[in-house]
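Tokens help. One example:
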Amino acid sequence: MPKPTPWEDEYTLLCERCGYVLEGLDQAGVCPECGKPIAESLPGARPGTPYQQKPGFKSLIQTAWMTVHCPKKILETMCFEGDNSPPRSPLAAYLTYTVIACVGLVMFSVVGNSISVMDIAIFLGIMTIIGFLIWAAFFIVTIACAYIIHFISMLFKGRNDAEVSWVIAGHASIGWTFTGFTWVAGWSIDRLIHSLVPTHSQWHLRIQTMTLIDSVIVPTFIGGIILGSLIFLYITYLGIIHTRYINPIPPQEPSNG
């Protein structure tokens, strides 16, 4: 038998930390169960992440740092409902800036070589297409993960609706930034090895033996996916736990006037 929820409906005021029913208690007090101030659990009390408050490059960097450095704190400030529009998710911004930065770094490592301008232009076009495909792939993966988060929340009788799951997944997508820069690091290391170590030298054969392939690109490609996925999964896991008792804003009744 499914375990019944401790609240009457989805708008019953709960402590967002422990799920204690706060209906009828003084809003200036604290939760009798865990001591969290009741005012912090009120609907609409979340101020939003820096990017949600004022979208921009600077606020995106601040949000990324907070998400990685103190994910629990960012989840306590994350806004899931807007007054006139849905809350902003930094997913598109994370992916866009990451792709631009990674393509720029790869091109910077190529420009110094003695190749023609036409070759550089062709390579830039190829990298742009690859970057767009990677952007689209991670965007689709994140959307799919948002649905999975919502499904898991429903299994555990949580209040994480589709909008909450989407915002959590969007902030957790900072993990894909780590994936992108790990790939660029692998590309750079591979280029450095090929420029410093002759292809048929003994040291090159040792490098092949250590990496099990002709270069370090494949190990860093796999490692980047693993690293980014672990970061993404960790933040989404915390998101599911910390938003289980989220208090949605009740719908306003239409006025008689």
Notes: The longest helix spans residues 117-155.
